[in-house]
Amino acid sequence: MTPTPPAEPLVEVVRLPHAGDLPLPRYESAHAAGLDLMAAVPAGGPVTLPPGGRALVPTGFAMALPPGYEAQVRPRSGLALKHGVTVLNAPGTVDADYRGEIGVILINTGAADFTVSRGMRIAQLVVAPVRQVRFAEVDRLGATERGAGGFGSTGV
Fold this sequence. Notes:
Elements: E1 12-15, E2 35-38, E3 47-49, E4 54-64, E5 69-74, H1 77-83, E6 85-87, E7 92-94, E8 101-108, E9 114-116, E10 121-129
Antiparallel strand pairs: 1-4, 2-10, 3-9, 4-8, 5-7, 5-10, 6-8
EC number: 3.6.1.23
Pfam families: dUTPase
Enzyme class: hydrolase
């Protein structure tokens, strides 16, 4: 007997006026982890990123994540590989209590200008459960084999 998977969390979405003709974020394949985000820049006003340039690109929607979830804004591998364009603060975190427009900070690390046009898929959004923690100050931490070794201490 196959167990019934849990119901998907519901995310309420508001399409903003400047994105009326754009589709809402969607999964592009059956097993995709991320929903594609599209640029809601004006049709007659694309954003050009010179080499080293960055810009906050609007997506045209706001959302209400359920408590206990976050959304991570991540780069699209094709843009990174082909053009050197990536998400500057990857992954960008969208908290469950944020209600403003989702924006994507893009940076052009490539050698040529890159133009972001209306409706272009610019990033992906991964919604994932997250837990808050409590901090407790102690005199010392429990020992592990690794200890305080970091930044390559476990090998290349």
